[in-house]
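Chapter review: from sequence to fold.
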Amino acid sequence: MFGLGTPELIVLLAIAFLVFGGKKLPEIGSGLGKAIGSFKKGLNEVEEASDALKKNIPVVKEISQVRESLDKAKDFTGFTGK
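The token string follows.
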């Protein structure tokens, strides 16, 4: 997780405790957790919408199929395009 080990996390938590105090930390953690959950939910909605577009628009569907065929051909031949 971002190259942070246990000692770094302990230092960050100690600094947060000093800055915000013990009463505010649970509120901040709860708000952060809700924000992350909301972000993940929105990201999943965007991915679902993207998949729906690929399935419903003929041109996009064809392009996706061509791209998959090219990827399979590259994997088969070992071509990397470099």
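Two observations follow directly from the output. Residues 2 and 8 are 11 Å apart (CA to CA). The chain has a mean pLDDT of 85.
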